[in-house]
Amino acid sequence: MGTVGKALDLLDLFTHQQPQMGLSALARAAGLNKATCHRLLTEMESRGLVEQAGPAREYRLGPAVLRLAALRESAVPTRDAAMPVLRRLADATGETAHLSHLVAGRLQTLAFAYSAHHGIKVTMEDADFLPFHATASGAAVLAFLPEAEAARILATLPAPAVVRERMDHCRQHGWAETVSTFEKDVHGTAVPLFDTAGTCTGALAVAAAAPRMTPALHATITAELARAGAEITALRGGQVPAPLARLWQIPA
Amino acid sequence: MGTVGKALDLLDLFTHQQPQMGLSALARAAGLNKATCHRLLTEMESRGLVEQAGPAREYRLGPAVLRLAALRESAVPTRDAAMPVLRRLADATGETAHLSHLVAGRLQTLAFAYSAHHGIKVTMEDADFLPFHATASGAAVLAFLPEAEAARILATLPAPAVVRERMDHCRQHGWAETVSTFEKDVHGTAVPLFDTAGTCTGALAVAAAAPRMTPALHATITAELARAGAEITALRGGQVPAPLARLWQIPA
DNA sequence: TTGATCGGTTCATTATTTGAACCGTTGGTT
DNA sequence: AACCAACGGTTCAAATAATGAACCGATCAA
To answer: How far apart are CA A230 and CA A251, in angstroms?
Structure first.
């Protein structure tokens, strides 16, 4: 792995739980020498990608990332364009809707919307990674990924057989499902999303409170998901594969 | 300059005007060998920081930057926290308000808010860089930067003497001003912002349509800017320097 | 056909990265 | 007060990774 990769890996160490860390902690977590880590960090700091905060000189993500994100959204309005659809999906189902993207082999939460209908709802955090083995989104994405890439990811999962079942189900019905796997009492349903080349790039999901689930609600969720999934894919100029388009009952 | 710096410099080549570029164009613009450029790009692509789009395989910013930005805002809510203040400032003055941040020696637009009062307003774009020599924000930031850093930046400007005058004005009155320098018929007024250490980190500005400017409007703008500047600095736990706090008529 | 440019690759040369040991500080314990 | 451990940061010879001229096949225009 090159130097740049090591530097970028450092950025992945920052999480919601630990948004800033000291030099030694970062070096330890990344498996780097302290001196190496320091050089990478100062180099990134000089471009504003990270910055040092407080008297302890801890490092955290810098303001330059905001510019990059604004530029990305302006060039490819993935998030902003999907937000209205996401909100309507949350409203129509009365549950929490969320959007995720496949980035470098991981499923990254991009956006979410809560419904106002219920006091109890599934809460989410932005910028987290979803585990492929325990989410409907993961199964939906894997189901429509090129076999080679799907296999590569499946090989890293604890229970590939179970996930394969969910993938088959998704290919047959047009949506994937998990019940109380990611979090207890959360009923997840998801559909895949596609880019212009017809490649699966992410998923759209509804996370419902399991105790509330009824056949009627379930029917609403799958129908709304198909509609919203087709809409977001269309917004991006994406191509839904023909078999899936039939299941979703939309024009190819 | 290290390898990481070169890679990160590539990211700065993407702009609103040119959100995606081919390999050769990037190499040329960055002054890199094509092979070197390619290696850096593929390394960044593997982490999702850039991606390739379309049949021409042009490169553009990738989805990973969205995660980084969301994480940054969650840890240090610079933009989100300031938005309400920015909107109130635009409403109170009837003009365009914007917020900028000093990042790696450049002034980066972070956010802006339009007023609904007038049909004609100064329009802005996010994620652009403001020139120090032609904006009130630039003068305001330079006026309260450590002398060494200010001098370093001033040395790169076309007309440092004029900018020094604006800086002096800002130190005396608490706000900086430019008329028709950045764009014709735009009257800019700005105040500096500070972090916890009392270091100047950015500026808050109002860009007004020059023909509309009256002594009364001008008084409103400077008063509202002082209020809003103090508020944003306070929101961040920042320290306004004592002399400036007196000018703004706020508690030290 | 020719020629120019594109994205991408190769590999000997070269320059950069690397990491053990070091420094000065800080903060808690004895 | 003395001690110790951990912190952020620096040094420099040794080792590794970055570099770039030349090259490939493809595309496009003349």
So the answer is: 10
